[in-house]
Amino acid sequence: MTLRIASRVRPSVAPTGNAARISCGLLIGFRDAGSVWVERSLACVNAAPLEARSVSFEIDPRVLVNVRRSLTSTPQSIVGFYYTNPSGQRTLGSRDCDLLANWPDMILLLHGPENEAGESLQGWWRPSGAEKPTELDIEIVKMRESSLLVCPE
């Protein structure tokens, strides 16, 4: 499985600078044979309890429902989640594995420190029925423009 991310989306899911808290959001796009395409991202408020925001993230379920509703008449859907990892950890934690277990076939995109190849993004997914998550190949691609998505209240 390959995760293809629109080049214009990369800056929003991999911001520069140091943040003390995790930032998070939704990945919007579509699937085809062997690929997940991310056409846009939607930054969301980290709804985790304040004291936990440096180590975890939560997205308000009402946001998920409203975004899904706003996408019903489009070919796009929520294909995953993203978050920045201020601790610099480049491996999946137990909370990440739980998220992927509870949302099979969804992507989890992590932004952390650069690896030896100079890349800061890691993509993971857990196909339905799989015992553990699998790391995805990531390609940054030039894609057609699409309209901006505003976070529904």
Shape: globular
Give the neighbour order of strands across the main sheet. Answer: 1-3-2-4-5-6-7
Question: Uncertain spans, ≥5 residues at pLDDT below 50?
Answer: none
Structural class: alpha/beta
In DSSP terms (H or I, runs of 4 or more residues), the helix count works out at: 3
User: What's the mean pLDDT score?
Assistant: 86
Beta content comes to 25-35%
Distance linking N and C termini: 33 Å
By DSSP, the count of extended strands is 7
Helix content: 10-25%
Tell me about the largest β-sheet.
Answer: 7 strands, mixed, barrel
Radius of gyration: 15 Å
Order of helices and strands: EHEEHEHEEE
How are the SSEs ordered, and which strands pair?
Layout: E1 2-6, H1 10-13, E2 24-32, E3 35-44, H2 61-71, E4 77-84, H3 94-102, E5 107-111, E6 121-125, E7 134-141
Parallel strand pairs: 1-3, 1-7, 4-5
Antiparallel strand pairs: 2-3, 2-4, 5-6, 6-7
Could you characterize the architecture of this molecule?
The chain is 16% helix and 33% strand. By secondary structure, it is α/β, with parallel strands linked by helices. A 7-stranded mixed barrel has the order 1-3-2-4-5-6-7. A hairpin with an 8-residue loop joins strand 6 (121-125) and strand 7 (134-141). It is globular and about 40 Å long.
Short description:
16% of the residues lie in helices and 33% in strands. The protein is of the alpha/beta class.
